[in-house]
Automatic annotation (TrEMBL):
The keyword Coiled coil does not apply. Keywords: Cell membrane, Kinase, Membrane, Phosphoprotein, Phosphotransferase system, Sugar transport, Transferase, Transmembrane, Transmembrane helix, Transport. Residues 271-293 are annotated as: Disordered. This is PTS lactose transporter subunit IIC. It comes from Glutamicibacter arilaitensis. Residues 3-147 form the PTS EIIA type-2 domain. The lineage of its organism: Bacteria, Bacillati, Actinomycetota, Actinomycetes, Micrococcales. GO terms for cellular component: plasma membrane. Residues 299-656 form the PTS EIIC type-2 domain. It comes from the Bacteria.
Length: 665
């Protein structure tokens, strides 16, 4: 445990800036200077990304920024007692005690347990009082080491007993946060302490990084209600089926434990209270009960879910089709079925082994691509209704494909299936029928509603719309094509992997199924434009750091070396460290180059049959790959030149910089 914190990782009574970003960047730099991380910028980026999901301020003037990062080489605690408290999002005001918990991506369970113990100790007032009274770095290290040695592994759970043995109410809980290091355990301890004060029997299951011990089924059976204080799905939720449930973000378990317990007791007495479903319909339940998620937000989430699950079918299928062309030539489209039905490895066609293997690759790819629309519809429905929605969504997507309604039909069918299944799942049914709902009733009725509407009313008009859209794309040329490429390129660079970037990428991927090299190359051109434009920002930052290294920090120069490979592989996020540190110069420069590249791709009529991979899938670009590379190079040069000019002539202090004079102890 002594290797988690040392005296040089402690800063006492210093002013580290006015924002949580300032403090996190300072502590990340401190950890890196101690040789415990390879990049302060990358570590700060990961901690700030975690901070953006859930603020890490907790009651009592405490903040626990934390993350797992590949930049961390040794599990580490860095502590600051701030001379000027800083707001970390706690309801009771700014924090003066800040612990930065930095864990490697593959941290072992023993270290994660120690980090979790520290987080739990910070909800105990005697420990925080001792931290505020300490007069030296050595005293802080001793206090932390003592807590890590003595803190209990988990809140004590009451022993299972017969329900009649006590009149006290019984509540069980599950706590979980995305990283599973801090909030998971702090919420568990806060709830346990509040339950003791309220006279409630209580047991909690912490689904965190340092391991999870499932609750005793006997305790669950006795429980009057359950609390899910989680930011992620509860594992094996069906164990709690039929119990009244209060589900909230994990931070509320830290901030409002007493209120949650009282809400749970009230739910236990309310016959109309929400119950844990018999299946694992977590997404359905969340979207039904989330008053904050309107139709638009739900539709966006569902579309992104559908596209994310669809991409593996498209990626594998597109690359295999391209490989089939590489091995068997473009005539393979006409003879693949014949080769596979009439020939074998021991009875090769006249064209030889390569042609036969090309037919195999082409056919596998084609079959994989055939799942594009059904998978899109199925997982859109899944986003709305969880597992009971998958079969109706897949079926509606298959109907859309059968009727020629394409990916638009798949989207419409998936949305209808998901909403129908969610509605059916909300019905109040007898207990004997409840077990059949997720496996029989919901899929059956959902399929009838969604596919029936597609066949009877919607499929035909959507097919006509799809045909018109394909005709427009096929006939697009000149200025119209260049403008579309420009818009897609700008969208790819404006937020570097964010929602706008994902919209452009989803549009390109969804159109792949309608494109072909011979008949309608426009969707393949759009895919190439999106991929090339997405490569420009990281490649431009890599080039700029190589050409003008003095304009960048040491961490940025290191990130620039990695950005070469990230950009070449079409990983736009390789430019995020640069954009996070200097958004007003990096993002506009990236957008200009990416927009130019997207426009050039459409003008050059370069294509890509693969949805990802960058230059490493050149064989999926037919003979247009030289034009693809040229367009990418031009955009990279433009963006790199612009960012260098802006950094030279539009100067400003680095974001989050801390005056060394202000951090003297």
């Amino acid at each position: 445990m002594s290797d988690l914190i040392e005296t040089r990782l402690v800063t006492l009574d210093a002013h580290l800036g006015s924002t949580s970003t300032d403090v996190i960047k300072y502590l990340a730099q401190q950890i890196t200077q101690a040789g415990r991380a390879t990049s302060a910028a990358e570590l700060a980026e990961h901690a700030l990304a975690r901070e953006a999901k859930t603020a890490t301020g907790v009651p009592g003037g405490i903040a626990i920024p934390h993350c797992r990062s590949a930049a961390v080489t040794v599990p580490t605690l860095a502590m600051a007692r701030l001379g000027t408290p800083v707001d970390f999002g706690a309801k009771d005001g700014p924090a003066d005690l800040v612990f930065f918990i930095a864990a490697p991506e593959g941290a072992d369970k023993e270290h994660l347990k120690l980090l979790s113990k520290l987080a739990r100790a910070l909800v105990k007032k005697p420990f925080t009082a001792a931290l505020r009274a300490a007069r030296s770095n050595e005293e802080i290290v001793a206090l932390v080491s003592e807590v890590l040695s003595d803190a209990p592994a988990a809140p004590a759970a009451p022993a299972a007993a017969a329900p009649a043995a006590t009149a006290r109410p019984m509540i069980v809980a599950v706590t979980a946060c995305p990283t599973g290091i801090a909030h998971t355990y702090m919420a568990a301890d806060s709830l346990a302490q509040a339950a003791e004060e309220l006279g409630i029997d209580f047991a909690v299951e912490t689904q965190g990084s340092s391991g999870s011990k499932p609750l005793d089924p006997a305790l669950i059976a006795q429980a009057d209600a359950v609390i899910f204080a989680v930011d992620v799905d509860v594992r094996d939720q069906s164990r709690f089926a039929g119990k009244p449930v209060i589900q909230v973000p994990v931070k509320r378990g830290v901030d409002e434990p007493e209120k949650l317990l009282k809400d749970a007791l009230a739910a236990a007495k309310d016959p109309a209270a929400r119950k844990v479903p018999a299946g694992n319909e977590t997404a359905s339940e969340r979207s039904t009960d989330s008053a904050s998620e309107g139709f638009g937000a739900g539709l966006k989430r569902a579309l992104l879910t559908g596209v994310s699950y669809m991409i593996p079918f498209v990626a594998g299928g597109g690359l295999l089709i391209a490989l089939g062309f590489l091995l068997g030539g473009y005539a393979i489209t006409d003879v693949a079925d014949q080769y596979l039905t009439e020939n074998t490895l021991f009875n090769l066609p006249e064209a030889g082994l390569l042609a036969y293997l090309g037919a195999v690759a082409f056919k596998i790819g084609g079959l994989s691509m055939g799942f594009l629309v059904p998978a899109l519809g199925g997982y859109i429905a899944y986003a709305y209704a969880d597992r009971p929605g998958i079969a109706p969504g897949f079926t509606a997507g298959a109907v859309a494909g059968f009727m020629g309604a394409g990916f638009i039909g798949g989207i419409v069918g998936g949305v209808i299936a998901g909403l129908a299944c969610r509605w059916i799942n909300s019905w109040t049914v007898p207990r004997w029928l409840r077990g059949l709902m997720p496996v029989v009733i919901v899929p059956l009725l959902g399929s009838i509603i969604a596919s029936g509407l597609m066949f009877l009313f919607l499929g035909g008009p959507i097919a006509q719309l799809t045909e018109a859209l394909n005709g427009w794309l096929a006939g697009m040329s000149g200025t119209a094509a260049a403008i579309l490429g420009l818009i897609l390129g700008l969208m790819m660079a404006i937020d570097l992997g964010g929602p706008i970037n994902k919209v452009a990428y989803s549009f390109a991927v969804a159109g792949l199924g309608a494109g072909s090299v011979a008949e309608n190359p426009a969707p393949l051109m759009i895919m190439a434009a999106v991929m090339a434009a997405g490569m420009v920002p990281p490649l431009a930052m890599a080039l700029a750091t190589a050409v003008s290294p003095k304009l960048f920090t040491g961490a940025e120069r290191e990130n620039g070396k990695a950005a070469w490979l990230l950009g070449a592989a079409f990983i736009s996020e390789g430019a995020i460290p640069f954009a996070a540190a200097d958004p007003l110069r990096v993002i506009p420069a990236s957008m200009v180059g990416a927009g130019i590249t997207g426009s050039l791709i459409m003008s050059f009529q370069a294509i890509s049959q693969a949805p990802h991979g960058g230059i490493f899938v050149f064989f999926a670009m037919d003979n247009t790959w030289p034009m693809f590379l040229l367009a990418t190079l031009i955009g990279t040069l433009v963006s790199a030149a612009l960012v260098i000019v802006l950094k030279k002539f539009v100067r400003k202090a680095p974001v989050g910089a801390v005056d060394p004079a202000k951090v003297a102890a």
